[in-house]
Design brief:
8 helices, globular, alpha+beta, five-stranded antiparallel β-sheet, 229 residues
């Protein structure tokens, strides 16, 4: 019988900077394509914990969850539980926008576009009143241009969130939550009857979570019943 010779495979680990770059790229991919990662929120927890461990700041994540909990943006099921009390089904892209705000404050978010201070201020001044009328996806981009980050992809048959930021991380993201689903008690059709998603709400602000939402008439009609109680 032949003699088996053991072989040792030497493993060379990536440098810390390479590890961080890889994880930041993965985080930005999950944020933009939440539907491709199953439980998007669980995927984010793993990446965030690894990044903060690598940066030797593990306590930051617990602090953020406590802050969200105080504001009403966190529940026993995570951020999706907070969104489920205010918006109809399909919250992955909405949750991604909240995590993106956290990622931005940590220096991890890579926006595709950054609004200058003038454009951002004009948006903040206008958006509460603007968001009280029914709108669709094209109305948002016509009024405010392409988003800083598109959460959820370009297919108009699916919901998505458009996020807008300036270069000052102290200024909150302005998020437009768009939906193209089936109404309760109706059979879901495919493709949907609407050719592009409806705007349900604009979200902006660091105070109480529910107060950061401005609902369109369509959004108010589709708010879950538990939100009205």
């Amino acid at each position: 019988m032949g003699k088996t010779v053991g072989m040792t495979c030497e493993t060379v680990l990536a440098a810390p900077d390479e590890m961080r770059t890889y994880l930041v790229d993965q985080l930005n991919s999950v944020l933009r394509r939440p539907g491709m990662y199953g439980d998007m929120e669980a995927a984010m927890w793993i990446i965030v914990n690894h990044l903060l461990f690598l940066e030797r700041r593990p306590e930051i994540w617990e602090e953020q969850k406590r802050a969200w909990s105080r504001q009403g943006g966190w529940s026993p099921t995570g951020a999706k539980g907070a969104f489920s009390s205010l918006l109809p089904t399909g919250h992955g892209h909405c949750v991604a926008s909240l995590y993106a705000e956290f990622a931005r404050r940590q220096g991890w978010l890579k926006p595709d576009r950054v609004l200058d201070a003038e454009a951002y201020t004009a948006m903040r001044n206008a958006v509460r009143q603007w968001g009280r009328r029914d709108r669709v996806w094209a109305d948002v981009t016509t009024a405010f241009g392409p988003p800083s980050v598109l959460f959820g992809g370009t297919n108009p048959f699916y919901g998505k969130t458009l996020g807008y930021v300036t270069d000052d991380p102290a200024q909150p993201m302005v998020s437009f939550h768009l939906w193209n689903g089936a109404d309760p008690d109706t059979e879901a059709d495919w493709p949907p009857a609407r050719t592009e998603p409806l705007l349900l709400a604009v979200r902006c602000g660091d105070g109480k979570f529910v107060d950061s939402f401005t609902f369109t008439p369509q959004g108010r009609r589709r708010r879950p019943k538990c939100a009205e109680q």
